[in-house]
Amino acid sequence: MPGSDVYNTTTVTDQRGNKMFSVPPFLGALRCGVKVAEVLLSFIAFVVEEVVTSCLNCVPLYFFEFISCTAFLFTLLLIILLITRLRSRVGITCWPMLDFFYTAIIAVLFLFASCAFAAVNGGTTLEHTAVAFGFLATLAFAADLVLFWKTEGLPWRSNTQEAGGVPEAAHQPEAEGLTQNH
Length: 182
Prior knowledge:
Elements: H1 5-8, H2 28-51, H3 58-83, H4 86-89, H5 95-119, H6 125-152
């Protein structure tokens, strides 16, 4: 077919679409590793807490159990959504903002649950170990927030402060219109 070779030299196939797993640019390899640490530390805190057989006041224990299990499951789900193609199929367009606020909320709740469980427990080694992993998980979530802020800034300030509050994309010329039929 004559003339079809014109497009062959300029057309490039998108190799990114073929990957099953990819780390989004706002996450990066370092933050992805921190998220994996969050999952592991939350899981260990949850498992160690589950081994505790008796409690003096069980409310802080149950609250710690709820927060550590929630942090483990939801952070694992978030990682799976972020690094697979599912992120484009869910319908969420503001992943950085969701990630930032989720991480901030879990960090605060984990800190509160760890402090409450540290204040009211039976003093067993298992309880102290669970509390220690709770504080380590809290530090991982806090480190994730700091890394996010250092690399990306605050998510609600991205591109809206450009040119008098108008997003930067509004000032760029359209890519379409290169070939117009008259």
